[in-house]
Design a protein that fits this description.
This protein is mostly helical. The protein has helices spanning 2-15, 32-39, 44-67, 72-96, 100-116. The model has no long low-confidence stretch (mean pLDDT 86).
Length: 117
């Protein structure tokens, strides 16, 4: 579980690695968190879709955590925490034009998972 999650985070970090040739025009996606934040107070339908998307992502993390022996309670807590950490790190990476926030959470999340195992 930890290795797969780290690989996922490090793949995202590569998208923000401006020191290795990626440039502003290289981004082909808008970080989802920015869309969610923009829509939260302006468009109820879009806000709901964003909320449902976050729930879907959390369910993927939850399923993987359960499959790897975490309790239901731990899987619920961790799936929400991991999702929030990733979204926050993506937003920080974009605003700082750096992959450091993603690299930082790739170091912290394994320790967090170990506390609940």
């Amino acid at each position: 579980m930890e290795a797969a999650l780290n690989a996922h985070i490090l793949a995202m970090a590569d998208l923000f690695d401006l020191d290795n040739g990626l440039e502003e025009h290289s981004y082909t996606m808008m970080p989802f968190g920015l869309l969610a934040a923009e829509s939260a107070f302006m468009n109820e339908r879009l806000r709901k879709v964003c909320g449902d998307t976050y729930k879907y992502w959390e369910s993927i993390y939850y399923t993987k955590l359960i499959a790897n022996g975490f309790s239901d309670e731990a899987a619920v807590t961790l799936s929400k925490a991991v999702s929030a950490m990733i979204e926050g790190a993506v937003t920080l990476s974009l605003s700082q034009r750096s992959n450091e926030p993603l690299l930082n959470i790739s170091k912290v999340i394994p320790a967090l998972l170990a506390q609940y195992k």
